[in-house]
Design brief:
The protein is built from four helices and ten strands; from the N terminus they run E-E-E-E-E-E-H-E-H-E-H-E-H-E. With 212 residues, the chain is an alpha/beta fold.
Length: 212
């Protein structure tokens, strides 16, 4: 069993094994607790958006690149919407209280919004539904396949987002805070990565996930 402790008093994340299934593998929150039987200590469902999304229209959306021994992922954030994901996460957390299996939700903004103000309101709404019902929340600011600019390259937007998240965490009357992680892009240069990590530290984000 592994326990991740936090110095800010956030609820520790308890894992039966040190493996967590990454976001994108279970986009719809299906059969969540079954993954504890597959040697996972936790699972991140989603990424979830404000409303349900069908994802990118082209086919195939996942293709093998044999020479590189890799896969090309172009799913486009298909998911059932944050309300359904939050309901499924809450049920799973209640059902597995006796087990060392942590359920987290990954959240992100809806692609195609026209302004940063709309993106911020959209993101914070989605976060506010995920936060109280999961063991931790992943802030996906680096989704590479929506056709949009990655948010972890927009310094002022990240400042506003992390500040808004901090306010939501303070306003929820929970016995203990939930942990929050920021998922970053692999293509960031050193200066941008250091600046982003500094922002997370200054706004109470518990850690970063490297990389999308």
């Amino acid at each position: 069993e592994r326990v991740i402790e936090f110095t800010d008093g956030s609820v520790p994340i308890t894992l039966a094994t040190p493996l967590i299934l990454a976001a994108g593998a279970n986009k719809y929150g299906q059969h969540i607790n079954c993954f504890s039987s597959l040697w996972y200590g936790g699972i991140t469902i989603g990424s979830g958006t404000k409303e349900e999304r069908a994802g990118n229209p082209h086919n195939p959306r996942v293709a093998l690149i044999e020479l590189d021994r890799a896969a090309n992922n172009s799913m486009g954030l298909n998911n059932p919407g944050i309300k359904k994901l939050a309901e499924k996460a809450q049920r799973a957390v209640i059902d597995n209280k006796a087990r060392s299996f942590s359920v987290g939700i990954s959240v992100t903004e809806t692609p195609g919004l026209s302004s940063d103000e709309e993106r911020l309101d959209d993101f914070l709404y989605t976060f506010s539904l995920a936060y109280p019902v999961s063991r931790y929340v992943e802030i996906n600011i680096s989704c590479p396949n929506t056709g949009e600019e990655r948010l972890d390259s927009k310094y002022e937007f990240m400042q506003a987002l992390f500040k808004g998240i901090q306010e939501i965490r303070d306003n929820f009357k929970l016995s203990k805070r939930r942990a929050v992680y920021a998922k970053l892009s692999p293509g960031s240069d050193k200066a941008n990565l250091e600046r982003t990590v500094g922002l997370t530290q200054g706004h109470g984000i518990n850690g970063v996930i490297l990389f999308n």
